[in-house]
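PROTEIN DATA CARD
Card holder: CoA transferase
Chain length: 412
Origin: Roseateles puraquae
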Amino acid sequence: MQQQPSPQALTGVRVLDLSRVLAGPWCTQTLADLGADVIKIERPGSGDDTRAWGPPYLKDADGQDTSEAAYFLGANRNKRSLAVDLSRAEGQAIVRRLAGQVDVLVENFKVGDLARYGLDAQTLLAEHPGLVICSITGFGQTGPYAERAGYDYAVQGMGGLMSVTGERDDLPGGGPQKVGVAVADLFTGMYATVAILAALRHRDATGQGQVIDMALFDTQLAMLANLGSNYLCSGKAPGRMGNAHQNIVPYQVFEASDGHLILAVGNDRQFAKFCEIAGQPGWAADPRFATNAERVRHRAALVPMLEDVIRQRPRNEWLAALEAAKVPCGSINSIGEALADPQAQARGAVVPMAHPLTPDLRLIASPMKLSATPVAYRHAPPLLGQHSDELLREAGCSEEEITVWRQRGVIA
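Structure generated from the sequence above:
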């Protein structure tokens, strides 16, 4: 007997995805991974902007580049694509029909833009009071910057993240630095997911839908976490610390005799263990270094001493000794090394999926490990308009309507 697939937590939830690029698609991919049926609305001919954000591109079975950018593939699995022209009245009618058949609508249009198509939140909620609408913008629906376009890079700067990222200003290479991935987008996508799940719970209990107003800028401010709290408590804005930690010492990168390693001492007991391994047990008893608070105050004295002793031994020797003593540490891997790491392999960090253009697509797996309702990889990231006919039939459209719309360029 064939084993039935495990149920998924969001099976039965339908999502209309009018978003593009990263924050919105990251949110809807997460919902899709959890079992939601996500309908991705795209512009005929071009689709989501990230379809063209390459190279690199997916390679076909012959090793040749396709038109599918790796960027797009990383944020759009488990979705179905409907290519429809929202500038056309027929296209607007199609999306309004779909809005009445879903639980959630996610969009990242500029403030006010969807009103032109009769798809603004006020109109849709009047017609469908149980709908959950999540709007993702750079600066939110209110405030003096509401009408500005919002991009992750600019928000990292405006929201304070680049003021605490990068090497210290007094060292070579010092100055503002963005994070290597679009963290404001990604965090906004994740916060949006949480908000949508909360709104669905409320809708299921009361029948009432609502509007979720998500902004990259708001999220970036929230992401400041302990550093934002540091400022509010002290009145002093934290500066850039390179690879060091604002509140913990030693907690940074050090150079061994043959490479770099991370030492992440989190408490005084771990520091004492490190000192034993380093052959310097007296450091742990020194009043300047005995507690984390004193180590932070005397960072300038302690760190050069640590640098001198750590560079005397090879990296792997340090890592083995520190791991055996349960002192937090780590290597600094390339992305390839990280994905090839035995732990990544054991956790299934890379998943294969059959794509229409190649049987050998590999994607980074979802990190969510649910025992009863596991993530499932049902659909490869779709080709543009791959599911247009299928989705329109499911929405109750006739074959004649579909044919006419395609002839007129309303759908693709």
